[in-house]
Structure formats: structure tokens, C-alpha cells
Amino acid sequence: MKKIKTLQCIRCGKDHKLTEAKYNCTACGGNLQVLYDYNLIKKRLNFDVLNDNPERSIWRYLDILPIASIKNVPPVQVGWTPLYKAEKLGDEAGVPNLYIKDDGRNPSASFKDRASAVVVGRALELEEKVITCASTGNAASSLACLTGSLDMKTVIFVPETAPAPKVAQLLVYGAAVVMVKGTYDDAFELCLKASQEYGWYNRSTGINPFTREGKKTCAFEICEQLKWETPDKVFVPVGDGNIISGIWKGFVEFHRLGIIERLPQMVAVQAEHSDSVKRAFETGTDVQPVSGKTIADSISVSLPRDGLAAVMAIRDSQGFAVSVTDEEILQAIPRIARGSNVFAEPAASATYSGLLKAVREGKVKENESVVLLITGNGLKDVQSAMKSVGKPYVIKPELSELKKLVADQKLA
Ligand SMILES: Cc1ncc(COP(=O)(O)O)c(C=O)c1O
Ligand SMILES: [Zn+2]
Question: Contact 312/282 with Cβ under 8 angstroms?
Fold first, then answer.
């Protein structure tokens, strides 16, 4: 593919040809990033081309994606999700220029569809027969969704504790599902061994250099939806660190192409016991394992698989990291819903808790524009959502009973 210049190791800088490395750096094992011939791309991708492009999905950015043609992509709409100005929520947070990027609106109801779409497109071009993935849940359900109608076997490894709605998605879409008695990290290692043993194409985060490519499209959309303005800060929930590094890469690439004039600050939001990236960023040390325990299953990660790239994204963007408690994460679910009409799963609601904390600590100024990335829909984890709200009233189907509730001022 002429547009791709190199697969470069983010740790040691070694360059690889596209045909030379499928997953990690052949010298040091570090994660790879795809770098393009930006001069070539500049001729094809600019304001005018984008303004005139009727495609409303991630494929409007095909010129800067590692896929040769859209003949080879899953037949559902991924990306071009809404960006809402969240007036009420913004007023409550003391940040009037608050935006919500609702990525729960993707086909499998999470941001992960962006990555899976690109990786599946790549797998089809490579004529892979079996694709595999380890996941806290969403990457897997998105892979199962996007391969659902394709002639490609999908083998999924998830921790036994993955929420039932995500497991239901996997089974409905026809993936073979292996539930591992252990954590996400255990599932990850087993998936890696399976991929090595059987030659299955591995979509797992951190291993596969193309996931970040799909994820960066969200940054492109934010720029377009803000009429080419860059937001001041983007709050991203962080587990493995692949979303935040992908989004940062998107902003950097649009900047390099001259499409935007300045870069935003990236803010990593982590759960307090799953805060490996935050610790590494703040102490300047390597990414180390932590317990990873949190109710927000999607960001429950002991050892982040793209931690170095995440730390680099925070550092290079002059951003910061914030951690929040499970209680704050739960409280944020109804607050986002009532302040912006968007139902977020716990990992995604963490962004709002993170914003409130950052405001309290004076790290966000009132006049700044802020985007919260809502990475997953609330229906993905109804059990947690129910913990964040009261119980419904249960009555006999009689007006007299209803009248009692009204008299007690319970309804309106
Ligand atoms: C809803 C949601 N938010 C956030 C994340 C965290 O992304 P990353 O692991 O790339 O940091 C995930 C990953 O599974 C997710 O599914
Ligand atoms: Zn390397």
C-alpha cells in the first residue's frame, strides 16, 4: 500500500515494512504505529475534499487508513456518531462549552467498532480465515458484530465476569466464546498463545497495530463536527490506553496535514484501582501492573497493553490524568443521562466524574471547550446502571394505589 510508509516501534523507533511485522516490533517487542506518506495524503485529503464527501462513516477517511479499498469492509455503518453540545450538563459542571461524543451509537454500541472495522477490513485483505480477540467485553462484541455476516470464524476470549449483555452479543452474532476463569489479563495471555499456536489473526488491543488506526477516526470527526475548531480538552476513559493514544494520533495527523491549527490536551480518566497509566505518567516510571479492580469492567485492566502510547499521548498533549472512585462512576450515569440524554456504561460515565474532579482541582477553566468521549452505551451493563438509581414503584393496576403515590408527591 503506497500510502503507508512504515510500521514504527513506539518504544525503540525501529521501522518495519507492512509485510515485515504483523504485530509487535521485531527488535524489542514494543507496539507499532502506522506512519503514512503524509505528503501524498495531503494531496488527497483536505477541507474541500472532506466537505464534499457524502460518506457518513469512518470510511470517509479511507485515504489515511491502512485499508486499500472499501470493497473489503463490514457492511454496517461505523463512526460518524453524534457530537452534542450538552448545555444542561455543562452548566452543572461549570463548563458551558461541554460536548458529548456519543460513540455508544455504533453498530455494537461501543467505540470499539471503529477499531474492529479497520482490523476486519485488514483481515479480509490478508484473506485470514479465523480472527481472534481477548477483551474486557466491548472489543469482542464489536468484533463478533462486524464479522457476523462474513465468511470468517471469530474466536473470543473474555473474563468469566464479562457483563451478560456483552456475552449475549457475542453469542447472537455467532462467535465461538471462551470464558476464562480469571481476569482480562489472563484472557489476553491465553488468546495470544492460541493465536501463536493456530495462526489465528489477533485483533487484541496493543498487539494489533491497526486498532489505533480505527480509533483515530473519532478525532477526525470531532474536528469536523466542531467546524474545524480544536477542543481545548478531550476526556477519555483509559484501560489499555489504545483509545486515548488513537485519538491523539488522529489529532496529530490532522494537524500535520494542515487541517487543524492547534492540538487539544488529552485527559486520561481511570478508575482508582485501575490507574496504571496515571501512575506511570505522574511518576515518570514504566507502566506497572495494579489490581485493576473496578465496577467499570471496560477499564478494568491490571497491565495496560498500550500503556506507553497512552502515557506519550498525555505527555505530548500536555494533558493530565485523573482517577475516580467506583461510587463517582456510578453517580455519573444518571447525571449524564439527565443532563444530556445520553445513557453511558460505567467506563464511559467515568469521563464525567473525571471532569467534575478536574474542575474541583482547578484543572479546567470555565471558558474552555471540553469533549467527553462516551465510549459505550449504558445498556451494555444494566446491572451497574441499576445500582446508580432508585427502585421503581410497584403497585396494583388501580387508580386508588396510584393516588397514594401522587398524594405522597412521589410522581410529579
Ligand atoms: C466503553 C469503553 N471505554 C473505554 C475503554 C478503554 O479503552 P482502552 O482499553 O483502549 O484504554 C474500553 C475498552 O474496552 C471500552 O470498552
Ligand atoms: Zn522496538
Answer: no
User: Ligand 1 centre from 112 Cα, in Å?
Assistant: 8
Say what the pLDDT of residue 72 is: 80
Question: What are the pLDDT digits (tens) for 182-241?
Answer: 999 999 999 999 999 999 999 999 999 999 999 999 999 999 999 999 999 999 999 999
Atom of ligand 1 nearest to the CA of 139: 14
Q: Which ligand is nearest to the CA of 12?
A: 2
Q: What is the average pLDDT score of the chain?
A: 97
361: CA distance to ligand 2 center in Å?
A: 37
The upper half-sphere exposure of residue 297, i.e. CA atoms within 13 Å in the direction of its Cβ, equals: 26
Using a CB cutoff of 5 Å, list residues around ligand 2, an ion: 9, 11-12, 14, 25, 27-28, 30
Average pLDDT over residues 239-251: 98
Q: Which three cell numbers stand for residue 179?
A: 470464558
Determine the average pLDDT of the residues in 276-284.
98
Cβ of 110 closer than 6 Å to ligand 1, yes or no, is yes
CATH label, 83-109+211-387, candidates 3.50.50.60, 3.40.50.1100, 2.60.200.30, 3.30.1050.10: 3.40.50.1100
Q: What is the distance in A from the centroid of ligand 2 to the CA of 301? A: 23
Check if the beta carbon of residue 119 is closer than 8 Å to that of residue 208.
Answer: yes
In the chain, what percentage of residues exceed pLDDT 70? 100
The CA distances from residue 269 to 130, 203, 340, 372, in Å, are: 34, 24, 20, 10
Using a 6 Å cutoff on CB, does residue 136 contact ligand 1? yes
Mean pLDDT of 70-98: 96
Report which bound ligand comes closest to the CA of 11.
Answer: 2
Of the listed ligands, the closest to the CA of 162 is 1
- pLDDT confidence band for 158 (50 / 70 / 90): very high
Q: What pTM did the predictor assign?
A: 0.97
Query: Is there an atom of ligand 1 within 6 Å of 139 CB?
Result: yes
Report CA-CA distances (Å) from 389 to 89, 99, 172, 333, 347: 18, 24, 29, 9, 17
State phi, psi for 276 to the nearest 5 degrees.
-60, -40
Decide: 375 in ligand 1 pocket, CB within 6 A. Answer: yes
Q: Which atom of ligand 1 is nearest to the CA of 241?
A: 11
Domain extent listing, the chain: 1-36, 83-109+211-387
What pLDDT is recorded for position 128? 96
